[in-house]
Amino acid sequence: MRSLINYFTILSILLLFGCNTGLKINGIADYQIVIPNQADSIEIRASKQLQRYLFEMSNTEIPIVGEKDFAGKNALFIGRTAYAKALDLPLDQLQDDGYIYKSVGKNFVVIGGEKKGTLYGTYDLLEFFGCRKYTPIATYIPKKKSLSLPNDTVFIPRIVYRTTATGFGGRRSNLVVNPEDNREYDEWQKVSAQSDYWGTFVNPVTNAVSSAFVHTFIRNLVTPAEYLKTHPEYFALRNGQRLPTQLCLSNPGVLTACIKDLQAAVDKNPTARYWSVSQEDNAQSCMCDKCLELNRIYGGDERRNSGAMIWFVNQVAKAFPDKMISTLAYWYTLPAPDNIIPEPNVNIMLCNIDSRRHRPIFEVDSAFSRHLTNWGKISQDILIWDYNIQFSNMVSPFPNLHVIGPNLDFFTENGVNAFYMQSSSSFGGEMAELRPYLISKLLWNPKADFEAIIDDFCNGYYGKAGPYIRKYIDTMRDALLESGFRLGIFGSPEEAKESYLTEALIKEYKQIFDDAEKAVQNDPVLLERVKITRLPIMYAQIQISRTEVDTPRSLYKHDENGRLFIDPEIPPLLNSFVETIKIAGMTQLREREVRISEYLAAYNRIFYNTEDARDAISLKKKITPISEFSRRHKGVEALTDGMFGSLENWRDARNDNWVGVNGTHMTFILDLDSVRSIRYINMDFYDARDTYFQMNLPKYVSYTFSSDGENFGNEIKVMTPIDPMEEEFDNMPRDIYIQSYTTYTIRRARYIKVHAESILRQPNWHVMAGNPVLMFCDEIVVK
Q1: Which of 16, 31, 385, 751 could form a disulfide with 351 if both were Cys (CB 3.0 to 4.6 A apart)?
Q2: CATH homologous superfamily of 2-156
Q3: Cα–Cα distance between 97 and 135 in angstroms, integer?
Q4: Is the pTM of this model over 0.85?
């Protein structure tokens, strides 16, 4: 027992003085981690993280000591120690996040910039040793007993503000991703914390804190709740009405109110440097004479120009000279003005929302490249808002990884040093692990080899399945480029079904994933990662299936008697997709909250209704339109073809089985061929209740009956229970509605006249207020 006590006593002494016997660094085993005597929180965190990961690598704990207590021979000096500061190092060049590596004899120095440079240098050192942080809960730590230190380095990141929406959070494999995991991932990938730069607003009613990052005109500053009733003139003039879509920037009262409300927010958060004074997320700007005149003075194009915007924001910036006032160059404000220069403390958030993503932006979007150049001539502070996922279908295959590196390199070569690389702000999505990893690495070093980063991730995150995942990425990329398809952020797999998602290619992708799963079939963790990465191909199969009839991959097929049925392979595929996406932790499929439960319900509705409508007396009967139907959607014959639309596909119904009218009522006559007994009529209309899209439910649907097609009577009117005119100024609706207009009746008739009463124009709460309303129905079912 005495000898055992003596052993631990000797071991403790050895550890105290740095004489570890397990890990050798540059061939030496007696290192200590030395921090400043008055180390700050970043230096303490950096030293602890270095100690922790070195222990995980070697099972050897290297002691951390303050500089005054260092009595050993060899040290890893972390942070602004007196030893490091005494060296002739260019510390004044490091800015916030840069760092220096310096070897002095057997000692090694990691010293960083004023903010997190020391921590970032420490994480890069761990990467040099072979460690990887693929996701917040997927870390690779090699087992090593011997390490070599890197060469002397001075690294100053070219991009000073680096943000990306990772969407990490929620559940993955029954493991909760907690805030500390997310924090470590963001710090490891050197992602800038928005809260370190941008101010926030506090709702005076609910006390809820909301981001001031973007779209603050009406949401956070001059709010309709406070000003619309008393000062309607503060808001945009559209078609003769004052509407709460954007602000009337030429009205002096708006400037006064904006400065007052911004000052109240600044008083609550005085240390924040950046404050957003920016347009709402729509193109419904003020069209009053004074605002149009401002645009003419400062640019020439009265409708698509940033002149009025910069004129207004400059005045706000002058009221806050010690703050950076950020505004958007987006949609109608994308072109730079001609005769006005932003104040030095105005940040321009330049957005490339319309750019295509199949090739680098400098190849496919000369207009945006020109805007970037023009803004660069007049602005001292530009942040690029880039888009890196298919927002209308976030789990859809989106082969854009090959353009992220060239795009960032192009932007930085044009003087941009701040980025918000938006991918998925919700958890999950296509390549949800690789995409933010790649983006973060390239934000830290735009000159890095993005192909090597992808290889490293695939092999590290997927193990033996890595080469197959890389093959899948390359095969889809090559198919995209060969097809000439123009990849957009608001597209769909249906649009790509003849380019990179052809029937033959999907078969090839499925085989690649079969091989990948087989390669890791004995490793449950890796197998689950592969299955989750396969989700986009499953999604593409499901979505494309409903756009075809009687093809090998179609949802709808006819039997030998011409009767419609659902392909029996699709429901199991749907169920497998839903179960796997739940394992992945993804809660929504679209930017506008199509929840997984809604997606499943949408297809189950199709399955049930298709079977239920097979004995309808309306099936394949003639429809005579009275009102004008939209030519962008299915023709009126689709109202009796037995095929139903999916309520989750609300961004664009062209690829679905919906029949629509635009800005008019829906009126038609159904001919049942002969006088029949009628007991049941149903029509389903849908409404996405999203302020970006111009669809709404009818006020009511009426059915009238006739035996001869001339004399109609016996009207039955079915009212909608949802008020389409309800004001929603403070909440952007996100719900999807299917509303059934059903009547149970006893009638004998051959003809049924249907009239769906539209509200015709979008209500005031809608960002497209005053614009025509779309109404959609997929089938009339009569029994």
Answers
A1: 385
A2: Chitobiase/beta-hexosaminidase domain 2-like (3.30.379.10)
A3: 22
A4: yes
